[in-house]
Amino acid sequence: MPNRTSSLKAARDNHCLIAIGASSGGVEPLKQIVRDLPSDLAASVFVVLHIGPVSHLAGILDRAGPLHARTAVNGAIFKRGNIYVAPPNYHLLIHDDHIMLRRGPRENLSRPAIDPLFRSAALSFGPRVIGVVLSGSLSDGTAGLRAIKAMGGLAVVQDPQDAAVPAMINSAMRYVDVDHTAPAADIGALLGELAVKPAGEASPAPPHLRLEAAIAAQEHSTMQEEDRLGEISVFICPECHGPLWEIEDGDMVRYRCHTGHAFTSEAMLEAQSVEVDEMLWSLLRAHQQRAEFTRRMAQRESKKNLPALAAQLAARAQEYTDDARVIERILESRQAAVSEHEATPEQEHGKKRSG
Question: How far is the C-alpha of 201 from the C-alpha of 350, rounded, in Å?
Fold first, then answer.
């Protein structure tokens, strides 16, 4: 009769948790990976995909392969051989053997975000975690993958040449000592092999990792002086307009505000770009409305037989119109620049990030 105690210890010591993060272009590789996972996978699988207000991903993955996939439920105890998918507008977190869903601050313009899942997995399961980064824009997942490696876990990324949008993968490869790089068609089988291998030695958790995980779990609402993650920067948070800490995470620079919003450098640039666009559109509408309002005033004064005042108002209306055209040209040039750099269509669940 087999030794049950030895069997349980072996189960606890393998790579029993797989955390996967994806964004734009990530649905197809996710389906491929799930299709190739073994039916007796000795691990639980958690998936975060940047999504809009509605998601059908759990159903898509449930039909794609042999493992049961479901939308994660807060407080549920997770089991091996199952796939748990982050629902819209909630961070998917892990605490010991159960799931936590939290509406914590957005990270890298997203909720759900990949980094909170990876951090929580690393804290609860240390070297038994495998983190996987797939196709996506910007750089969500990199800081979390660094946390997994810091705690002794494994880092796997999709081959960037195999990805529709390789930015997230390239970021991970730049800042993380990746263990395996493979096309999506090979990752499912690879994860099955890695899951049964013994995990390495556990490493102590860095203090900043516990603090950032607590922020995502809404267990820590402010950053006091003794909890400083870095130095106060000259920049403000694009989300809440509060001050930002500048965090030096090895050779990677990140930002987090007192509210908890977090950004990589790439996400900061994207957020600032969105903010500039919103200001330009607002300015355009204001100039167009002023032009129209002043033009109508000129018409009314003309009917009152006040040609001098009507001409003055008409000239002012033309100035507002000219200013609006300048703003329109700026917006057109910005859109042209974006189109040149984002020629890849978005994943099927839409580009919009949850607010």
Answer: 40
Is 140 considered catalytic here? Answer: yes
Of the residues 140, 171, 261, 349, only one is catalytic, namely: 140
Query: And the tokens for 130?
Result: 């495998």
Least confident of 23-27, 237-241, 280-284, 331-335: 331-335
Reported as a single tens digit per residue, the pLDDT across 37-90 is 999 999 999 999 999 899 999 999 999 999 999 999 999 999 999 999 999 999
The Cα–Cα gap between 229 and 194 comes to: 34
Provide DSSP, 88-157.
TT-EEEEETTEEEEE----BTTBSS-HHHHHHHHHHHHGGGEEEEE-S-STTTTHHHHHHHHHTT-EEEE
Q: Which of 50, 261, 287, 349 is catalytic?
A: 50
Residue 50 falls in the annotated catalytic set: yes
User: Active site includes 354?
Assistant: no
Residue 347 structure tokens: 């994943």
**Catalytic residue (one of 23, 44, 55, 120):** 23
What 3-state DSSP class applies to 30?
Answer: helix
The pTM assigned to this predicted structure is: 0.80
